[in-house]
Amino acid sequence: MRFIQAVAIVLSIGWLAACSSTGDKKSGDAAVVEDRSGDAGMDAASADATATAVGGYSDLTIDSLTDPSSPVSQRVIYFEFDSSEVAEQDREFVAAHAAILAANPNLKVSIEGHGDERGAREYNIGLGEKRAQSVRRMMEFQGVLSSQMTTVSYGEEKPAVEGHDESAWSMNRRVELVYVAY
Amino acid sequence: MKTIWITLLGVCLYLPGWLQAALTIEITQGVEGAVPIAVVPFAAPNGRQPPQDVAGIIAADLARSGRFAPVPEQNLIAQPVDTSQVRFQDWRTLGVENLVIGSVETVAGNEYRIQFRLLDVLRGRQITGYSMPAKPEQLRYVAHRISDIIYEKLTGEPGAFATHIAYVISDSKNGNKEYQLQLADSDGYNPKTLLTSRQPLMSPAWSPDGRQLAYVSFEKKGRAAIFVQAIHTGKREEIVSFAGINGAPSWSPDGRSMAITLSRDGNPEIYSLRLSDKKLKRLTTGSAIDTEPVWSPDGRSIVFTSDRGGSPQLYRMPSQGGRAQRITFEGNYNASADFSADGKSLTLVHGQDGRYQIAALDLDSRLLRVLSDGRLDESPSFAPNGSMIIYATETGHRGVLAAVSSDGRFHQQFSLSEGNVREPVWSPFLTRK
Q: Distance between CA atoms of A120 and B336, rounded to whole angstroms?
């Protein structure tokens, strides 16, 4: 297990480095997104601040979670309509969080799934749960212990953005990582 | 007659007192061919006006059904109190088929005696007539019972006016979200808050006897739980709270079990929960989302939503679990089913071309008919007599309730002065016939 964790961390840091060198910055996207939403229970980070932090990937620690210049200060993963698949470009972002969790077994995270307002409320609870479980499975694969993670789905009950069009819906189809204690 | 009084009183005992109306109803699309009926204002023989306009409540009930067109009060040609005062010929000339007359008499101190007669204008004779006692706070309820009797005599189907609706309200107060589970009469009057929470409340479901509501609450932060609450005492009990989903409660017709959705074994699956000993039985398997179970009225099968075929569709399986059959094929989104009381049709949320509307599915012919014309309509629930479907819609970016007759011809909207209202569920019949 410990070996897997180590590999996971190395791999994820590798991915992140690759990501930073190509300039394909999930964190930059997320920051823009964050500015539009204004409220998702996260620390705000401007796109500029995030852009200057790209070189810091190899130093991911618990402290990175609260460092607005670190990509892991972001906590949200977004999803396509009626999909619970973590998008290709978000996988290294999930991996970065997983790396921190795997290296800190006392750290706990609540993985909270959400959906947009369209369709049936309980089905959206199901969809939010599937989204949370997708993230959970990726983290588990990277060495995060089952006991470190809980999932909960709020479906469409706790939108990040109030609104009735795609610009709001795309912000609401999400998983939020809520660290419980660190 | 005596038995009717007793059941009336039995139910009235735990009804809340009269409050300000919070939901007001507007008929948004009428029906041609509604039967003209005259409801004459009820007399107050000893001069004391009752606190409720009983005849007005009856006329509004009959109008809301879409089946009747009450004559406006100012057009009434006479205001008879007793059959002997009725000149049937005059009412025939007015084109009125039926006439309702009556009185609200003060008896002993704070009690009333309501008498009413339903008259057949064409034949010039009484169809039915009752006399019933009521305390002031029971007057609205008794008026709804009279509407039920009139409706049943004239249509051959039971009325569903003396019933309740439960629903969820969300509002922002000083930047804080507040959720309320409320209960009101079927006409939106007498709203009563059953529960208030800072965390989401959802999925209210009536017990078959109409005495309890199951619902989902997120009041334990970061975890959902299903509760059952007795309506008249307010006493509540947590039924399940596993890790992950605890949702979509639906009572079995015998009231002994509940179908629920849990993800405790990994995936959103449907379970039946025996309420006496909390014994769980898993009914679905697989990697899809299986949720929103509803029991058929005969208790033999469960209809649910699943995306096992790629998009959410409705499936039907035996209530003990087993092979499920897909029952919706039209449109790329069909979910949130509710059975009509006769088990012959379902109402559901039907998504097509990016719009989500309320539809009815005839289970024999598999014919699907779209009934609403909103963009984000959801949570349909049948009236216990199958005549109407109440659902949630939005107008001006606010959540409101609306109702449509099950044939789709008659529409009405319930509006609330503030906040968003959603997830309406119509109670079962509250009295035994």
A: 6
